[in-house]
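Hi V.,

You were right to ask for the full record rather than a summary. Here it is.
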Amino acid sequence: SSEHSICVAVPDSQGPAALEALQDTFELELARSTVNSVSLLRDMSVVAIIGEGMAFTPGVSSTFMRALATAGVNVRVIAQGSSERQVAVVVNSEDTTRALRSVHQAFTLSGTVVSAGIVGASSKVATELLSLLERQEGYLRENLSFEVNVVAACTRDKMLLDDKFLGMDIDSIASNIGDGPDMDLDIFSEHIEADIHPHRVVIDCSQSSRVANYYD
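Predicted structure:
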């Protein structure tokens, strides 16, 4: 809200009724253009950070916004609470889980989880990488609060996708990938994009120029 607008949040199911009530209440003002418009945004969620020490800790808001940006979450509205102990944003409902995970990690309320997609999973480099991840899994989690989940892997012909995004058993990737669907880079990329974890990486262990064409 500002001196030019007022925003309120209501349950999504009550949005149409709220819009109708406001349009009726401000019918005269809308006709005279004293009030320009009354609008409704559907499928939104409020994500907020709250803390007693926020007012005296520099950089809290920037950390909050940077976490959302890192997760690729679009902020539709920013609101400062009536006190100095809260900052809230409105995001698309489909981005809520990703936003929460990213903010939790930014303020070290949970460990960092990185979702990885391995291209060229049958190559010698990929085999060594997967073995290294498996050997270091316990150390990373216990000492660094860091976890790497392999959620997708592919060879030249086949791919293996973890639909639950919880991380595949590294030991079983090599033996199961041959039974997976045919390799499709578009589907592979869409799968990585669909992961709710804010930190995602694709590791290309192939020597394919076709894969390189997908680089941004």
